[in-house]
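Bump. Still looking for Aminopyrimidine aminohydrolase C-alpha cells.
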Amino acid sequence: MSYAAPSGEAFAKSDTNAAKPAKAAKAVTSVTACKADETPTASLKGIEHFADFSTPIRNLPDCAIATRLYDAARQVWEEGYCQPFIRDLRSGGLSRSRFTFYMLQDYLYLNDYAKVHALILSKTDDEEVAEHMVGILSAIAKERSSVHEVYARQYGIGADEIRSARQSAFARAYTSNILAIAYSRPVLDILVAVLPCAWVYADYGTRISLETGDALAANPYRTWVDMYSSEEFWQSSVWLLQTIDRLAAGISDVGMDRLIDVFVTGVEHEYMFWNSAYDMQLSWKPGWERHEAEGSMR
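Sorry for the wait, here they are.
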C-alpha cells in the first residue's frame, strides 16, 4: 500500500519521468538482485540491510527502536522482496492484469488508511504529530480526487474498473487490523501499525532503483519505482521512525514486545497484499486461473 507523504500526492509524484541520478545508475554493479533460483533470504552485495540504516543513497539518523523492529521482521521483509510480484515488477515483466489488480486494491485501501490517520489526529496531543496528520489527510484527499485521470493516463485503468472494484480478503484483513488498532490503542501503537506501509515501500523502491540502474528507463513500471525510491518518500519513513522512537522513550519490555508484534504483523500483511495481487486472489480461491482462461493475463 502506498504511504502518502504529506507534502504531495502519491500519484502526482509518480507522473514524472526525469532521469535518475548518475550515482543510482552506477550502483547497479554493486548490487545483487534476488533471482528465481536463489533462496529468499539471499543477501544483497554492496548494500547494507536496513538494520544498519545505510545504503549508497539512504542514511537514517540514529534511531534505536528501528533496529529492533527490522530485526524482528527480517525474514518476512527479505522474503517479501524476493516474491514473484516484486521480482516481475523489478524486471518489467509483471503482467498488466496483475498490476491493475494491485493498483485497485491500493486505491480501496486509501479509504481505511485515511480513517486511521484521522483517528491519530483525534487522539494526539502532540502538535508535531497533529500537523503531520493534517498533511497526510490532505495528500490522500488530493490523490483520491485525481485518481481516475491518473490511473487512466499512467496505467490504462478505466473508471468502470475503479467503480466496480471490491476489496480482497487479504487487503480487508490488513485494513481491519490497523483500524482495530486505531480505535482501541494509543497513538504510538497506531504509528507503528502504519510504519510498514512507508518503510517497506521505501526500502523495496530503493533496492529496485539501485539494481536496475539505467535499465529502469525501459521498465513500464518506472513511475512506481521513481515514486518509492524518491527522497521525499524516504523522508516519510524517517519521520515515522523518529517520532515512534521519541514517543517510545522509556517504554517497558512488555510495551516493546507489543509494538514489535504490531509491526511484524503489518509487514506480514504487506507480503500477503502483494502475494494476493500476483495470484489475483479476492477471496479463498486464486483468480489467475479464471483470468488466464478469459485471456486477460497480459
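The chain has a mean pLDDT of 80.

Edit: fixed formatting.
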